Amino acid sequence: MAKLSPRHAVVNREICVACGTCVDVCPMEAMQIVQGSFASPLEEKCVGCGMCAKECPASAIKVEVRS
Ligand code: SF4
Ligand code: SF4
């Protein structure tokens, strides 16, 4: 199994407006829009780079250390 990166993106689903910006900017193709209503990163692909968090217009994403 591939090793997960130490940091990852976490989406606040209450704030996310499903605009898709994070999907477009993610260099790892790790972000997906689920059921047309919120973004969710694929844990095995996300490297915690923070590009999505920087570009999210709703400030719905934080990069956190994996627990
Ligand atoms: S950029 Fe932000 S608001 Fe847009 S889909 Fe991603 S998490 Fe949601
Ligand atoms: S932190 Fe980086 S790799 Fe992870 S979902 Fe956001 S843009 Fe993609």
Description:
The protein has 67 residues and is α+β, with helices and mostly antiparallel strands. The protein contains 2 helices and 4 strands; from the N terminus they run βαββαβ. The protein has a single domain (7-65), classed as 2-Layer Sandwich (Alpha-Beta Plaits), CATH 3.30.70. It has helices at residues 21-25, 51-55, and strands at 7-11, 31-34, 38-41, 61-65. The protein has a two-stranded antiparallel ribbon. It has a two-stranded antiparallel ribbon with strand order 2-3. Strand 2 and strand 3 form a beta hairpin. The chain is globular and about 30 Å long. One iron/sulfur cluster (SF4) binds next to helix 1. One iron/sulfur cluster binds at residues 9, 26, 28, 30-31, 41, 46-52, 63.
Largest sheet: 2 strands, antiparallel
CATH topology: Alpha-Beta Plaits
Q: Which CATH C-level class is it?
A: Alpha Beta
Order of helices and strands: EHEEHE
Q: Whole-Å distance between the termini?
A: 18 Å
Q: Can you tell me the CATH architecture?
A: 2-Layer Sandwich
Number of domains: 1
Topology at a glance:
Layout: E1 7-11, H1 21-25, E2 31-34, E3 38-41, H2 51-55, E4 61-65
Antiparallel strand pairs: 1-4, 2-3
Bound molecules: iron/sulfur cluster (2 copies).
One iron/sulfur cluster binds at residues 11, 16-22, 39, 56, 58, 60-61.
In short:
The protein is α+β, with helices and mostly antiparallel strands and 67 residues long.
Keyword list:
alpha+beta; two-stranded antiparallel sheet; two-stranded antiparallel ribbon; 2 helices; 4 strands; binds iron/sulfur cluster
